[in-house]
């Protein structure tokens, strides 16, 4: 836990409604203390595993894969590089086109649709020991398999089956003491792809 200190601010000043600066110090203190404060749900997500052709070097295969997908205008996220493959998530609306252009380029592509990304948001995620265990346990209790995971300074993202989202929300809210107002539905922007 962080302690926010402000030079020359007493507790009386920090609680006084007449001073905006001490109030800000109190807000910062609260923000850092509260831990997980939101869940974001992103629906209609797909996942792909793309294996490299045997003849290509790994570096060339990765570069060609990304160039192929970029030329098709398909945005990717949750990208993971592996020894002989790349995995990524994308909008479900783009899955067929992505598989088509990658197979045409000589890649072996396995896909899965009907997924959702559940994102757990906390102001100081990297300082919360055991947060991934809590998330994984909650998703396990919800019967959700994690297909991919990612993180940032204030989030952990987990790709799960879309039909497990209600149970996942229920378990995560229970574990992190959240009410329904902490849940935010998001949507991927979908645009027409070039031919």
Helix-strand layout with pairing:
Blueprint: H1 11-15, H2 20-33, E1 36-51, H3 58-71, E2 77-81, E3 85-91, H4 95-104, E4 108-122, H5 131-141, E5 148-151, E6 155-161, H6 165-176, E7 183-186
Parallel strand pairs: 1-7
Antiparallel strand pairs: 1-3, 1-4, 2-3, 4-6, 5-6
Helix pairs in contact: 5-6
What does this protein look like?
The chain is 34% helix and 30% strand. It has helices at 11-15, 20-33, 58-71, 95-104, 131-141, 165-176; strands at residues 36-51, 77-81, 85-91, 108-122, 148-151, 155-161, 183-186. The termini are far apart. It is an alpha+beta fold and 195 residues long. Strand 2 and strand 3 form a beta hairpin. The chain is built from 6 helices and 7 strands, in the order ααβαββαβαββαβ. Strands 1, 2, 3, 4, 5, 6 and 7 form a 7-stranded mixed beta sheet that branches. It has 2 domains: 35-43 and 114-186, 2-Layer Sandwich (Alpha-Beta Plaits); 45-113, 2-Layer Sandwich (Alpha-Beta Plaits), CATH 3.30.70.260. Helix 5 (131-141) crosses helix 6. Its EC number is 2.7.2.4. It catalyses: L-aspartate + ATP = 4-phospho-L-aspartate + ADP. This is aspartate kinase. Keywords: ATP-binding, Kinase, Nucleotide-binding, Transferase. Belongs to the aspartokinase family.
Keywords:
elongated; seven-stranded mixed beta sheet; Alpha-Beta Plaits; alpha+beta; 195 residues; 6 helices; 2 domains; transferase; kinase; 34% helix
């Amino acid at each position: 836990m962080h302690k926010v200190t402000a030079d020359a601010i007493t507790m009386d000043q920090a609680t006084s409604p007449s001073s905006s600066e001490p109030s800000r110090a109190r807000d910062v203190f609260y923000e850092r203390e509260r831990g997980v404060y939101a869940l974001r749900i992103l629906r209609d997500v797909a996942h792909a595993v793309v294996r490299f052709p045997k003849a290509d070097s790994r570096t060339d295969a990765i570069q060609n894969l990304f160039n192929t997908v970029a030329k098709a205008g398909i945005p990717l996220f949750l990208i993971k590089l592996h020894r002989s493959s790349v995995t990524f998530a994308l909008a479900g609306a783009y899955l067929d086109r992505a598989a088509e252009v990658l197979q045409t380029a000589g890649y072996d592509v396995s896909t899965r649709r009907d997924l959702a990304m559940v994102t757990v948001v906390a102001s100081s995620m990297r300082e919360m020991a055991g947060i991934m265990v809590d998330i994984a346990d909650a998703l396990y209790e919800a019967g959700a398999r994690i297909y991919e995971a990612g993180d940032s300074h204030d989030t952990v993202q987990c790709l799960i089956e879309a039909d497990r989202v209600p149970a996942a929300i229920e378990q995560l809210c229970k574990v992190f003491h959240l009410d329904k107002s902490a849940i935010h539905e998001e949507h991927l922007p979908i645009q027409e792809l070039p031919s």
